What we know:
mainly alpha, 2 strands, about 5% strand, about 210 residues, two-stranded antiparallel ribbon
Amino acid sequence: xxxxxxxxxxxxxxxxxxxxxxxxxxxxxxxxxxxxxxxxxxxxxxxxxxxxxxxxxxxxxxxxxxxxxxxxxxxxxxxxxxxxxxxxxxxxxxxxxxxxxxxxxxxxxxxxxxxxxxxxxxxxxxxxxxxxxxxxxxxxxxxxxxxxxxxxxxxxxxxxxxxxxxxxxxxxxxxxxxxxxxxxxxxxxxxxxxxxxxxxxxxxxxxx
Length: 208
């Protein structure tokens, strides 16, 4: 009995050491993969933020967005390989053509007209929103203040301070907004209306 118990104890000890080592390696691998996932999530969030800023800049500059290509273009681009035709008997050639020809009545189908209610109204551009907001102001505002006000008025859209500042500078260049500087801060207002020249009335006795 003592002789058989000793090998069993050594075998159990070897298994225990191997399992312990495998567990340690497994835990280290989990920590490494978790760190990589966290780093990739941070990179994805940064890329998505840059994408939103670039889209806002594109909209502010009035650049046309590339149209999305329909899925049918890719299908039509791939031409199937021609099938090998087996020679048919001459007598049955006309019969097979008639059988395979599609009926003319069912080939042409009229597209169903979409209801007019499904059309979505066009949203105003960032330039239009900023011009309207400037006309409503009674005192100069900074780009950050204008961006925050637009965000409250239109919570469904995103307004980045950098994009709003670029748009305001574009309006200033087109004389559609005015810029004032107080210290290091820059404020924007709507352009002042042009003064109309006043016509001086002639004296009554000048005609005599």
